[in-house]
Amino acid sequence: MKKLILLFAAVASLNFTVKADEGMWIPMLIGKNYDEMQRLGLRLSKDDIYNINHSSLKDAILQFGGGCTAEMISDKGLLLTNHHCGYDAIANLSSVERNLLDNGFWARSMDEELPAKGVTALFLQRMEDVTAEVLEAVGDATGEEYNKKVEAIAKKIEERSNNKGKLTANVKSYFNGNQFLLLIYKRYTDVRLVGTPPKSLGKFGGDTDNWMWPRHTADFSMFRIYADKDNQPAGYSADNVPYRPKKYLPVSSRGVREGDYAMIMGYPGRTNRYEVSYGVDLAVRVVNPSIVDCRDLRLKIMKQHMDKDKKVYLQLTSSYSRIANYWKYYIGQTEQLQRLDVVNKKRTAEEKFMDWQHDNNKNTGLMGEFEKAYTGYEPYAKHAVYYSEAFRAPALTRMAASLKPLYDAYERHHGRLAADTLKKYITQAQNGYRAAIKDYERATDKELFAEMTRLYYINVPRNQHPAIYSSILNGASGSSKAPYVAYANTVFSSTFLTDSNRFNAFCKAPSYSKLKDDAAMRYTVSFVANYSKNYQPKVEAFANKKGDLAREYVKQLMQMNRGKKMYPDANSTMRVTYGKVLSYEPLDGVEYNYFTTLDGLVAKYKPNDDEFDAPKELLELHKKKNYGRWADADGSLHTCFITNNDITGGNSGSPVINANGELIGTAFDGNWEAMSGDIAFDKKYKRTIVCDIRFVLFLVDKLGHADNLIREMNIR
């Protein structure tokens, strides 16, 4: 196996020293960090963390649902993840009559566990370095040709490695395309809901407390993985049995103290710490504010309709939560990038990089090429955001977009298509339609349609607008709401797409004329055609150019910092991060403790409030101080704590593990003062917010009365 050359994220840390609490490290190379981990207190061996020949911590960690992390906590397939990671599954299992989301749910036997359709559990089997094979196949290709060659060789490697479809194989790029790893997974699809606290606790604090410390949120849920009798993946069946993991985590009930060792393993989504100053500047000035503006209006419209009708609330609450999470994220990221002066710090680092280039006869024009690429892209950056965040916000436009390939095929062939071709496009449309209609609620969607169309008109440069606006406005003022409302009424009253029965009838007897005459299709075709013809090529050309430049930039950073321990950007693959439990000072004269208690939750309590309500049973337990064995030595019940681990989105649900390999909590958020972290790590402020495992156990025990689950775990 070719040895990975780890690269130093110079631009990420804004200096040239990697700190112990910074870095998302590749598990199979964690030996390079082992001395430092031991110095911080780790008592496990390197093989205890990652080994492909016998069980290790990697076998207890899984990617949950495609976008989160979970950990095995029993030998019977029981897993722990975040409440917000299980949120969609819990909402889908809820109804107005049986509202599991609001009321909570605890299965007191396996027979009571509920199938969570669509939820997957992905276990890493091994990692292999395939860099040499990929780079040989790619050669000197650049731009779109480079992407096609990488895709082709990755597909070849994956197909020979998936054991005839029994395994999932992924080739992933690291260090901006300078390294490639093959990851082999086993995927389980029979996943069942076991337990969840009520939403008032699972999302305690709501949007107000999101990304904030101090925090008191019980952000956890429990599921169980099922397998066939041979412990292999199988679709849902009553004959399936609980999965037997190679490894599961023992649970510590002893609590944590400041300075304790803390290690997190999981699947962080995306970081961009190699981003150059021009990219950060564009994000702060254009991209982030545009995303926030679109999402702010979307959320206000959705909440208005959700508050009126519990059925609408259950239908849209999962989408609302996802939109809200990153609405606040982009607000916070922009604020912290500005506060920490990241653009200028990156420029300083880039000047040092250019000095090194000059001294070593490298291409000193590289940063100038970055500047040229970003300058050329900026006039279209806002359009790209509004196309994604405004035009595609209503479910109707996504439903119509699913038929656009069929429409285009009809156009190319003058309204006549062969049966097999027609079937292909109809199947594609049906898949897209099913995905979009889950978010369709007529009143909400109609208002979104009108307001997003208006917002697009106001904020995207006029010379970039699609032609349909002449029909929408018909001479009226572009900022007035009235023409957009009238147009939305016309579209929604005449399209066949808002009625699934009419859509299904169309799929059985497709008609080119019906597509051309449909108001929603005319609207969508105008937007999509305008973007795909005039602006998507510019966006893609910029992305390809940026990719080429970034690949060379990181390659030179490797040469500049040869011999130093370095880590790659997060890319939704398993990583290890280590640090310690640690308080911090967010402002002059202000110090935040490293833990919170149930006393603080009760102090925030507001009866019947959307964000700060709490179950009466919990308030009674608090009043009586009935915490059982889950109380801390100080007599209080600790709810959350913070560490200085380096994590990001995708780490939600990740286990926080002590020096002995025991579970001490589940990570669920980052703090406001360090929301620049996906672009620039800040050692002083960066914190991970963790739900204390004793709070989890207390709620399972005292509120859920699920003694069966307590007995199932190995609690120390």
UniProtKB/TrEMBL annotation:
Classification via Pfam families: Peptidase_S46 (PF10459)
Cross-referenced InterPro entries: Pep_S46, Peptidase_S1_PA, Peptidase_S1_PA_chymotrypsin
EC number annotated for this UniProt entry: 3.4.14.-
Keyword Manganese tagged: no
Family: Belongs to the peptidase S46 family.
Reported function: Catalyzes the removal of dipeptides from the N-terminus of oligopeptides.
Name by which UniProt lists this protein: Dipeptidyl-peptidase
